[in-house]
Design a protein that fits this description.
Layout lengths: L3 E4 L4 E4 L9 E5 L4 E5 L4 E4 L23 E9 L2 E5 L12 E6 L3 E8 L2 E8 L6 E10 L5 E10 L5 H6 L3 H5 E7 L5 E7 L7 E6 L5 E5 H5 L28 E12 L4 E11 L2 H10 L3 H19 L2 E4 L3 H21 L15 E2 H7 L8 H12 L11 E2 L6 E2 L16 H16 L8 E3 L12 E3 H14 L25 E2 H21 L2 H21 L9 E2 L5 E2 L9 E2 H9 L5 H14 L1 E2 L2 E2 L2 E2 L25 E2 L3 H10 L3 H11 L8 H4 L7 E4 L10 E4 L4 H13 L2 E3 L3 E4 L9 E8 L2 E8 L8 E6 L2 E3 L3 E3 L6 E8 L2
Parallel strand pairs: 38-42
Antiparallel strand pairs: 1-2, 2-8, 3-4, 4-5, 6-7, 6-12, 8-9, 9-10, 10-11, 11-18, 12-17, 13-14, 14-15, 15-18, 16-17, 19-37, 20-21, 21-22, 23-24, 25-26, 26-27, 28-31, 29-30, 32-33, 33-34, 35-36, 36-41, 37-38, 39-40, 39-42
Helix pairs in contact: 6-18, 7-9, 8-9, 9-10, 9-11, 10-11, 11-12, 11-13, 13-14, 13-15, 15-16, 15-18
């Protein structure tokens, strides 16, 4: 069953049935101010820390048809009373004649028609502003005039999001609401927790005179709160009570009497939800966004930002679904994931302050560097601030306070307090940034190491290059019995938590790739002695991996504290892991013959129609010595599930060995656009990648979950652009080396790079997967595959002829 369609011309996905199998969302704003909006207008909005500065109460565990955070009621006066309904479908669940939720770039637009009343609401956060705008236009499409009222409503949460759910005494006692009305009849309803009044006042207002208001949920619902959001008792009365709540469940409801709407007549109301420290100071900004022209300009500026962002890389391939993702939805998801990390999603709600992940964001940032490199640099700098002086890194941190923690490992006293892979990802991010921009000066920027106890240990800083060298040094020294990196609490796979002394093949390979990146960078910088030292480190790790980790048809994944292999044919469960195969090739450690065998094993044991499983077969029962992986049933998440983050690594590995057909097949298997016709089975949004899909050992094989904030977005984008299409920035220019399906006759890419625009056309007359025969730039034949850096703000024509 279909629930909507892609509108590529307007860069939107249009939901035509609000009754999606699970909640589908879109992001507005950013971590400074913003959150997400669902397909029926519900919203979760915060300012800064989602755990400690939440504004709206949104509880996704409630039934789909329930009110969540924010809604809009319309009220038509009839001879027998009032007809009350929501143009967002929920919470009244009236039958609609038209429903469209336009999932746009940084905005959601809901267009609906109920009872002859057409409503159009555009929801967004203006750039560099701290307010949610809802621009509402109501049109009477009936043959007769109607008397219409409009009542927008928000439900507030305590700023400490977790306490809202855990302390039913203290929280209600602190909630306060007040109303302010100016001479024009415009109301501002404010809400705050008593102890936070001076630095966190939430407000809700509109650009239309307000007849009455309500701030208490129980009074709004009526019948001592035993009425429901689907039919609030207060909306059966002419006006709301104008009650200012001094405790309890605070809401903000504004009653607007629009009066008579003649046939074809429209009314427009603009609401603002924001937070400020001083309402008097904020008044000027509130007045600004009461003006329709200013709202229209802000929305135009938002669209301009996204168009500029996307225009940096535009592809035209023979596959429409690939074009849809690469030109619109995949880079958009990369940017959203860069903004939010895993701090606030429909699945990870920011309770307890999970924060920004060092490993997560180091990977996320690589997905936006071709579009917004300086935004990427700013995040990279923040990440480097939480690297420790020994070269390892704190696992996660709060973007507002820059306080960091060791993640789950802190709670496991018998396990190491670090993740073995965290600190190595930043090498890939920094090198990617410099290849994109040529900003080698960044390597000399001084950035302090993270040290919470600054009094006993004076703050130490070093330049970025030294930070990267310390990352290498930590892993070089932190090895086990096989000369492979110690696992720590975990590596990339958080759920395998082995006792102290275990070794990680994944981290060994990541170390290998990090070394390759450092060797390339330092060679360009002319540091021959360090290059030689790192080449020796690389060779030693390569030898150890091939000596101890080859299992006959694939590479093992771990050695436990007793030296026993996991991910081996000898194991009953978890015989083979995808990452041990893909990363042994990405690192360059695997000889070609072993690379082919390892990838054949992935195809044989792990590939399914819905994607590549992370491991096989799944564990069937909890084993505390193995850790979290065994807490899932077989086929779920890391335990034999299709964990999508790891799929693009197999795509990349296949391009390295020259198999464009299989790389593209794997790309198609997880492309969410392809799921649009199978939403009943897949359930998730078809316009962004989820974190996981249930594997074929699970009875609900093909079901997706945990969309939006996933490292999948960055890595699939890199796999497609850099490896399948083969457009790779280097220190010397753009390297063009595609690995595509044999059936493709070619493709085109427009790529902005180093202040020039490269219009690239690739032709494949011989129907091969890989191989560049000829490169012509601006009509001139050049040697090699690297297109030079022009830096002249001009367009340059690049023609690539594939061939042996």
């Amino acid at each position: 069953m279909e629930y909507g369609y892609f509108d590529n011309e307007n860069k939107e996905y249009v939901i035509t049935d609000p009754r999606t199998p699970v909640t589908w969302i879109n992001y507005i704003g950013n971590l400074k101010f913003g959150g997400f909006v669902d397909q029926t207008g519900g919203a979760l909005i915060c300012k800064g820390d989602p755990a400690l500065n939440r504004i709206i109460k949104y509880i996704p565990q409630l039934p789909n048809g329930d009110f969540k955070g924010e809604t809009l009621y319309l009220r038509v006066k009839e001879t027998t009373g009032y007809k009350v309904f929501s143009p967002f479908y929920t919470p009244t669940l009236d039958k609609y004649d038209l429903y469209q939720c336009h999932v746009g770039l940084g905005y959601t637009k809901i267009i609906s028609k109920f009872y002859g009343i057409r409503t159009e609401v555009t929801i967004f956060v203006p750039l560099d502003e701290e307010r949610e705008i809802r621009d509402i236009t109501i049109t009477n499409n009936n043959k007769d005039s109607v008397m219409l009222d409009i009542i927008p409503v928000v439900e507030y949460t305590h700023f400490d999001a977790l306490k809202q759910l855990t302390n039913a005494d203290w929280v209600p006692q602190t909630m306060q609401s007040k109303a302010y009305k100016n001479q024009d009849g415009y109301n501002i309803l404010t809400q705050y927790a008593f102890m936070k009044k001076n630095n966190g006042i939430n407000y809700f207002t509109s650009n239309h005179p307000v007849a009455s208001f309500e701030t208490d949920r129980k009074r709004f619902l009526g019948n001592n709160g035993y009425s429901s959001w689907s039919k609030p008792y207060s909306l059966m009365q002419e006006n709301l009570t104008n009650y200012e709540a001094f405790r309890g469940d605070n809401i903000a409801a504004l009653m607007h009497h629009l009066g008579e709407l003649k046939p074809g007549e429209s009314r427009r109301i603009i609401t603002q939800l924001g937070q400020c420290s001083d309402l008097i100071v904020e008044q000027q900004a509130i007045e600004k966004y009461r003006d329709e022209k200013n709202v229209e300009k802000a929305f135009g500026d938002l669209k301009k930002f996204w168009n500029t962002f996307l225009d940096n890389i535009i592809v035209d391939t023979p596959d429409d679904a690939m074009n849809t993702m690469l030109n619109i939805h995949n880079p958009r998801q990369c940017y959203i994931t860069k903004n939010w990390s895993r701090d606030l999603s429909l699945y990870q709600l920011g309770f307890g302050g999970r924060g920004i992940g060092f490993r997560d964001s180091s990977q996320d940032v690589m997905g936006i560097l071709g579009h917004a490199p300086e935004d990427g640099r700013e995040l990279i700098e923040k990440l480097l601030h939480v690297q420790k002086r020994d070269g390892s890194a704190m696992h996660q941190f709060n973007i507002t306070t820059m306080e960091a923690n060791a993640g789950d490992s802190r709670e496991k006293e018998d396990r190491p307090d670090y993740y073995s892979d965290d600190h190595l990802w930043i090498i890939l991010a920094v090198c990617s940034y410099i290849k994109e921009t040529g900003n080698f000066d960044f390597l000399m920027k001084e950035i302090p190491f993270y040290d919470k106890d600054k009094e006993e240990n004076p703050l130490e800083s070093a330049n970025v290059l030294e930070h990267l060298k310390r990352s290498i040094e930590f892993t070089r020294k932190d090895t086990g019995d096989h000369g492979l990196p110690l696992l720590g609490f975990a590596d990339w796979n958080d759920t395998v938590n082995l006792p102290t002394g275990a070794e990680s093949i994944f981290t060994a390979n990541l170390f290998g790739l990090a070394l390759k990146e450092m060797i390339e960078l330092l060679s360009y910088l002319g540091d021959a002695s360090t290059v030689q030292e790192y080449k020796m480190c690389y060779k030693l790790m390569q030898d150890n991996l091939n000596k101890y980790c080859w299992d006959g048809e694939w590479y093992v994944r771990y050695f436990d504290h007793n030296g026993e292999a996991l991910g081996s044919r000898k194991n009953q469960h978890g015989k083979i892991y995808a990452n041990a195969q893909s990363w042994s090739i990405i690192s360059g450690f695997a000889p070609f013959e072993r690379a082919i065998k390892a990838l054949n094993s992935v195809n044989k044991y792990l590939s399914t129609e819905h994607g590549i499983k992370l491991s096989y077969p799944g564990y069937n029962g909890y084993n505390p010595e193995k850790g979290g992986i065994t807490s899932y049933p077989p086929g779920a998440k890391e335990n034999g599930g299709i964990f999508l983050h790891s799929n693009p690594w197999v795509m990349i590995a296949e391009t390295i060995v020259g198999n464009g057909d299989l790389a593209f097949q794997y790309y198609n298997q997880i492309n969410p656009v392809k799921k649009n016709m199978k939403v009943g089975e897949y359930e998730c949004e078809p316009y962004c990648y989820p974190q996981n899909i249930l594997g074929d050992e699970h009875p609900e094989f093909g079901l997706g979950r945990n969309t939006w904030l996933s490292g999948t977005a960055s890595w699939v984008y890199q796999a497609a652009i850099k490896f399948i299409l083969g457009i790779q920035p280097t220190y010397k220019g753009l390297n063009i080396n595609p690995c595509i399906p044999k059936t493709w006759k070619g493709f085109k890419v427009t790529r902005t790079f180093r202040n020039a625009i490269y219009e690239i056309e690739v032709n494949n007359p011989d129907n091969i997967c890989k191989g560049v025969k000829q490169v012509i730039v601006d009509g001139v034949l050049i040697d090699g595959e690297i297109i030079p850096i022009f830096n002249d703000r001009k367009k340059h024509e690049v023609k690539i002829l594939m061939g042996q």
